[in-house]
Amino acid sequence: MAEKKKYLYGPVPSRRLGRSLGVDIVPFKVCTLDCVYCQLGRTSQKSIERKDYVPVEAVLAELRERLAEGLEADFITISGSGEPTLHCRLGELIDGIKKISDIPVAVITNGTLLYREDVRADCAKADVVMPSLDAGDEEAFRKINRPHADISVERLIGGLCAFRDGFAGELALEVFFVEGLNTDAEQIGKIKDAISRIRPDKVQLNTAVRPTAEAGVERLDVEGLQAIAKELGQRCEIIADFRPQRCGRHIEGKAEEVSGSPASKMGALLSMLKRRPCSLNDICSGLGIGRNEALKYIAGFQQEGVIDSEEKDGIFFFKFKAN
Ligand code: SF4
């Protein structure tokens, strides 16, 4: 019998959202961007076309089951392994979630489609929206985010401003810094200007602490991020986690302890690695298992050629090998 498709993951404790239940609504690496720092690897389908990628009814049915089991979460977070605003029924999904649950809804997006009125209307149904802006001009945008040909940085900033104007919920803007690409004084100044136009409630600073799509993508050190936070002003906070215990930009934190058979733990491990490269510590704390058990599953998957490993700053990260 074919395995039932799962659209939900977690809840995971998230620094930004508390206990967050993730909802993944686009296929792996369908995105409007191809960021050099992406932890999921290169974008396989760069697109700006909104489509009915996964059946909203099936996502809601899975959520209904989780709620019936007594799900406890601070947020239901629409995010995942691609750009969620590419799903053309995003608004319908949020409406559906709100009909069956009182848990607030967050959308984590790269923000590039907010120039579209339909995308703004869909996202405005959420309680919290967390878009990104990593560049202050077109040259840096192309270098860091490698956008679809129809997306420009001005279009992105314009969309974010228009969304802010019509959105009463919380807007938390993430800025991801890559040493040497968007860290000079000129870029910081331009990003600061864009932030003052967008007027987010919060600005959250991140950097490449995990393996990235491109080799040679350098993280900023803590002192560098602190200096930028000071320059950008009071609404700034640093969300990069320099400790090797956490998974992800779009998916944060560690998962609940996975109970049950080795098969279910192996399934949970693969699901974790499909979303982010994880260190041995991440895997142990994420699945609530010991190092020996984790190493046994890792060795099995490595023998089958399903996962790979990569070293970054002295820590080994395990990654799912996409076909
Ligand atoms: S980091 Fe996010 S926005 Fe950038 S390519 Fe990866 S999935 Fe897309």
Task: Summarize, please.
This protein is 35% helix and 19% strand. By secondary structure, the chain is α/β, with parallel strands linked by helices. The longest helix has 14 residues, at 153-166.
What do these coordinates show?
- The protein contains ten helices and 13 strands.
- The protein has helices at 56-68, 90-100, 117-123, 138-145, 153-166, 185-198, 222-232, 262-275, 280-287, 291-304, and strands spanning 8-14, 18-24, 30-31, 45-46, 75-79, 105-108, 128-130, 170-177, 202-207, 236-238, 278-279, 307-312, 315-320.
- It has an eight-stranded mixed sheet with strand order 1-2-5-6-7-8-9-10. Strands 11-13-12 form a three-stranded antiparallel sheet.
- The model is unreliable at 244-257 (pLDDT under 50).
- Bound molecules: iron/sulfur cluster.
- The site of iron/sulfur cluster has 10 residues, from loops.
Bound molecules: iron/sulfur cluster
Order of SSEs: EEEEHEHEHEHHEHEHEHEHHEE
Q: What's the total number of strands?
A: 13
The radius of gyration over CA amounts to 19 Å
Q: Estimate the strand proportion.
A: 15-25%
Q: If you average the pLDDT, what whole number results?
A: 87
The helix-and-strand class reads alpha/beta
First and last CA, distance: 23 Å
